[in-house]
Design goal:
The protein has about 325 residues and is an alpha/beta fold. It has a domain of about 160 residues: Vaccinia Virus protein VP39 (Rossmann fold, 3-Layer(aba) Sandwich), CATH 3.40.50.150. Helices cover about 30% and strands about 20% of the residues. The protein is built from eleven helices and eleven strands. The longest helix is centred in the C-terminal third of the chain and has 13 residues. The N and C termini lie far apart (about 45 Å).
Amino acid sequence: MTDAAELERPACPRCGNHGTRGIAEGPDHLHATGLRASVVECTRCGLWFQSPRLPRERHHELYPADYAPHGEAVAATSAPHPALAAYLARHRGYAHLGTGGRGTPLDPFLRWRAGIQLIPAYVAGGRVLDVGCGNGGLLRTLRALGWTDLHGIEPDPAAAAIARSTGADVRQGAVEDILPGFPAAHFDAIIASMVIEHVAEPYEVMREIARALRPGGELLLSTVTRDSLDARFFGPYWAGFDFPRHMTYFRDRDIAALFAQRFDRLERFHQLGPIDWVRSASWRGRPVDRLIARLGRRGMIAPAIVAAMTGRSTRVSLRARRTNVP
């Protein structure tokens, strides 16, 4: 356990207000590290964030050795499904994947699939950055799709070493430290998969992402939203809290504020997340939760589909275009 004197009490990362009220607290259910975290709400803008928390230079302590995104990656990535490849050729600029052909009734599903996978519109000779690239799984996918000028940022040294096996230029270090080192308007696409909720200052990170992205370039981002059905159902046992690794807990309106001023054409793609229901149920342990846990991921696919179709799933992918606004 960490002594309270070693923790910091940050101002609201959205509006800078210091006034807060307590919301929830809990242990590290997922990895049993013995750490706990507390959530507070800003009394001015309503954002939820972790406070008190470890200082940023100690955030590496929150990630155990068996943290999945940092583990060994699959050596090779298979080609996209022919239907998805055809959709990408028709609508996302990937003509080199083959003829796109005519549209099909599957196009809405394929659009959603490309959206949740954070596949950027193709730019010949373009430069793409994966922020928080983990073991390089997405970098491998992008290379298989034809991108060659690949870059990544990864705080964990072991994961960064694995990611470099993709041939990408992967810089190891904190996102907040590495991003300012890139030139302005440097990238054609920037991707951040389940990263923004992990950083201490998400709105500042978004400003740096916007600075490094060329006007007209794409930002593709995934995160979690507490406006989900399972967040309301499980309360403090909601898997989206992921104590103590998640630093910020967004509502849909907080996510919209991340993209305000510097981006337009914001699109949302709600993911299926049956594992979030199962994990939350296993941690809470009520009679109905024991039933959910027994059903498992396959048994919970139906409520996960309902949540995604109604825009109320925990996990959401987003993409937007960088505007010319500085």
